[in-house]
Amino acid sequence: MIERYSLSPVRDIWTLEKQYERWLKIEIAVVEAFEEKGIAPEGTAKKIREKAKINVERILEIEEEVDHDVIAFIKGVTENMGDEARYFHMGLTSSDVVDTAWAIGMKEATKMILEELKSFIKSLENISLKHKKTLTVGRSHGVHAEPTSFGLKMLTFLAEMKRNYTRLKRAYEGIKVGKLSGAVGNYANISPEIEKLALNKLGLRPTEISTQIVPRDIHAELFSVFALIGSGLDRLATEIRHLQKTEVLELQEPFKKGQRGSSAMPHKKNPIICERLSGMARLLRSYTIPAYENIVLWHERDISHSSVERVNIPDATMIMFYMLEKSIYLIDNLVVDKERMLETFKRSYNLVYSQRVLLGLIGKGLSREDSYKIVQENALKAWEEKKDFKLFINSDKRITDHMSEKEIDELFSNEYFLKNVDEVYKRFF
Q1: 3-state SS string for 201-234
Q2: Using the 8-state DSSP alphabet, how is residue 336 labeled?
Q3: Do the domain assignments include residue 423?
Q4: How far apart are the C-alpha atoms of 258 and 243, rounded to whole Å?
């Protein structure tokens, strides 16, 4: 991930030094398990811990020669060891260390992402409650439909993110698995008991069954959840982007003091956070493809997945964290123009009340077909002549013969559209 979108603390998890630290932690956990079972002399793990030195430059220097990162790591950290070095990596294969280390890294990163998602959910909850009765135009096909509550609109995003939290929590539990079962996963040179002891020290559990690697459907599930969260954020960003258009301007992204929107046009305030979120959601969705491709490997394993994971695991977790952090800032500082939302009704000449008139006529005994034709005729006139829809309703004898002026006024009441909002909130919360 490029520096621009890499935020601590998730970024710090994926440095090369941290990777080697995870590898060393795994190796030591195995030696500690050996000691507990009397396979290695007491104090072996202590000696290894004291003498093992992670020198990134030295390890990379060795890798230039051996062309194998795990072998380079083993040679580098054991250079100053004595007899205890023979217990280091004993019975293990490279994937034991690498896959278990991926699990530790993903566990740490996902835990941070869960916390960010929880904070974002709180932000959505706040804006939903604050604007519970804020009237706005609902749209379908991008066209004015009927009045609704802006808080209710935000509640849909809140509900989606709560579902995503449940999904992410499940995926988080799913990735907390490692494997220390040897070259093809048959425990020929290391026992299931040692694996369980060592993984327990690392906060992991053994994979139910593995080949030489942890099955990659486990990773793919996490990527799928990231893609779902990203798509939810994209949906929110797209909503805000539309509502920030000059001709709409019901919402605006926060615009900091000193911020500039365009190098050429000083008046511009652009929805850059939302556009960035939409772009990053594309990346998250794209990462699911290689994650699914990584499930299919030759026999007990090949390493076609390895090069992919060096990129998509760190990048996906950093993108996810970045998107959530920016989304929290966006919602906490979103400019909501209530007056502009009310003015928007006039732009479609109050045609958003057409169904109320339709149902009013049906309620007076007219057929649905006749009622629809009468209302549509008046609605089209209002649109073509750019006049208030209500004027046409009040001057149509086919309507006024059945409804009084007061009854017509009631059809244009906004309270009607918010009458069940409390019930929806009560059900949700």
Answers
A1: HCCCEECCCCCCCCCCHHHHHHHHHHHHHHHHHH
A2: E
A3: no
A4: 23
Length, in residues, of the chain:
429
Active site residue 141: yes
Q: Do residues 29 and 198 touch, judged by C-beta distance below 8 A?
A: yes
Residue 420 domain flag:
no
Respond yes or no: is residue 262 known to be catalytic.
yes
CA distance 411 to 238: 32
Candidate list 89, 95, 123, 141, residue with the active-site label? 141
Q: How confident is the model at residue 265 (pLDDT cuts 50, 70, 90)?
A: confident
Which of 25-34, 257-266, 407-416 is the least confident region? Answer: 257-266
Residue 112 has pLDDT above 90, yes or no: yes
Whether the Cβ atoms of residue 184 and residue 211 lie closer than 8 Å to each other:
yes
Residue 90: which of 79, 101, 78 has the closest Cα? Answer: 78
How far apart CA 153 and CA 127 sit, in angstroms, is: 10
Q: What is the 8-class DSSP label of residue 389?
A: H
pLDDT tens for each residue of 43-66: 999 999 999 999 999 999 999 999
List Cβ neighbours of 228 (8 Å cut-off, separation of 6 or more): 164, 167
pLDDT tens track for 136-192 = 999 999 999 999 999 999 999 999 999 999 999 999 999 999 999 999 999 999 999
Query: pTM for this structure?
Result: 0.94
Active-site residue (options: 68, 262, 367, 413)? 262
Tokens encoding 371: 């009622």
Q: Do 396 and 273 share a domain, yes or no? A: no
- Pairwise CA distance, residues 417 & 356, whole Å: 10
Same domain, 319 and 383: no
> Domain residues for 18?
3-87
Q: Residue 424 domain-assigned? A: no
